[in-house]
Specification:
By secondary structure, the protein is of the alpha/beta class. Helices cover 43% and strands 15% of the residues.
Length: 218
């Protein structure tokens, strides 16, 4: 029960941050774009938590080789090269709205499409939330956030915790699915070696059979 209360408080806090970011965006100089989402609609989008996709959902989609999801890692190239989710592409948050010589957004064909479900992720939910906010303001379609980012990915998918003996059958079913996913993504037994030296990071380094990967900064 306490864990559920903590998670609830955590995402209420994230929503408060997102609303604050919205207000900040609205104070930026107006741009000559008639396609941007209006303030009232943007706030409604923030209140709707459907933008968050669970680690279980994303793991399932990757394992089933879903061609219609696009994972976008918004961390730095160094962090991306150290560790990233299978099939992800790297678009650092500070490059997200880069334009070409014609004034068009460089990543528009990837981030604003009816074909793909674009899923932003970072170590937590802050940078990915900013990416979602920036693209949502431009009224880009089908953009989502990996709930909890890589921190939650490691704690749920890579290092699943066995439920208590009196837990429900559904809890054990989720645990078994996560164990299978851990083997799929880790290639073997997964264990925490250490944490990044970056004090802002709590993404563990994972040891795997014959290979290793690491999470990056915050």
């Amino acid at each position: 029960m306490e864990d559920k209360r903590y998670i609830k408080k955590r995402y209420i806090f994230i929503n408060v941050i997102m609303i604050g970011l919205t207000l900040w965006l609205l104070l930026l100089p107006k741009r000559d774009s008639s396609t941007e989402l209006q303030a009232d609609k943007l706030l409604l989008e923030i209140i709707d938590d459907s933008r968050f996709l669970s680690t279980d959902y994303v793991a399932n989609r990757i394992i089933n080789d879903d061609k219609y999801i696009l994972l976008v890692d918004v961390r730095s190239p160094e962090e991306f090269n150290t560790f990233h989710l299978k099939g992800a592409m790297n678009i650092p948050i500070d490059s997200l709205l880069n334009k070409d010589e014609t004034g068009e957004y460089v990543w528009d064909s990837y981030l604003n499409t009816d074909i793909y479900k674009v899923i932003f992720y970072s170590n937590g939910s802050v940078y990915s939330g900013q990416a979602w906010m920036l693209t949502k303001r431009l009224n880009f379609k089908n953009n989502y956030i990996l709930k909890g980012g890589l921190n939650e990915w490691f704690s749920t998918i890579m290092l699943p915790q066995k439920p208590a003996a009196n837990s429900s059958e559904s809890d054990f079913a989720i645990y078994e699915a996560r164990k299978g996913a851990a083997i799929y993504f880790g290639g073997g037994t997964v264990s925490v070696e250490n944490k990044s030296s970056n004090s802002n990071s709590n993404v563990p380094v994972v040891s795997k059979k014959k290979k290793s990967g690491a999470g990056g900064g915050c």
